[in-house]
Amino acid sequence: MAIYYLINANNNIVSRINWNGVSEYTPPNGLTIVTKEVGDSLEWAAPEVRVPLTITRRQLIVQLLRSGIITSQEAIDAAKTGAVPSAVQNYFNTLSAQLKLEAEIAWASIDVYGRNSDLILALAAARNLTSTQVDNIFIAASRL
To answer: Where are the domains of the chain?
Structure first.
């Protein structure tokens, strides 16, 4: 067995493999196999970062705290009792009475937040967060 590298179209290494060089092997689409000698002169590709589709309630609360969107006390209250942080409540206060009630119930009872859920999208819009900023919140939260 010898070491070979899989490289992308930019000549960046994406994976290292052990292969005997004889048996049939077809690299995944878009990748090329090169010898260790060639690969040793190339750079590793940056890993692709994927935005998680969901994060937990704890992850969201901690990341909102780390992002400076809510205070320490608001984070503790939200985690312990489901209390709505002021930054979130400010958005809820713009809703009709019925929608406000439903939003507050959802906030207090939801365990998993979807990246593209109505609640997250509305909160992002109310805070003037870009899609990239929301993605970054979800990526950082998923690592907690």
So the answer is: 2-39, 54-142
Cβ pair 67, 137 in contact under 8 A: yes
Segment holding 82, helix H or strand E? none
Contact assessment for residue 45 and residue 14, using Cβ atoms and an 8 Å cutoff: yes
Report residue 22: phi and psi, to 5°: -115, -50
Region 57-62 average pLDDT:
95
Residue type, 91: Y
Q: How would you classify the pairing of strands 32-35 and 54-56?
A: unpaired
* Stated pTM of the model: 0.65
pLDDT tens per residue across span 60-83: 999 999 999 999 999 999 999 989
For 14-47, give the DSSP string: EEEEEE-SSS---PPTT-EEEEHHHHTTSPBPPP
Looking at the predicted structure, is the pLDDT value of residue 14 above 90? no
Strand arrangement of the beta sheet that strand 32-35 belongs to = 13-19, 2-7, 32-35
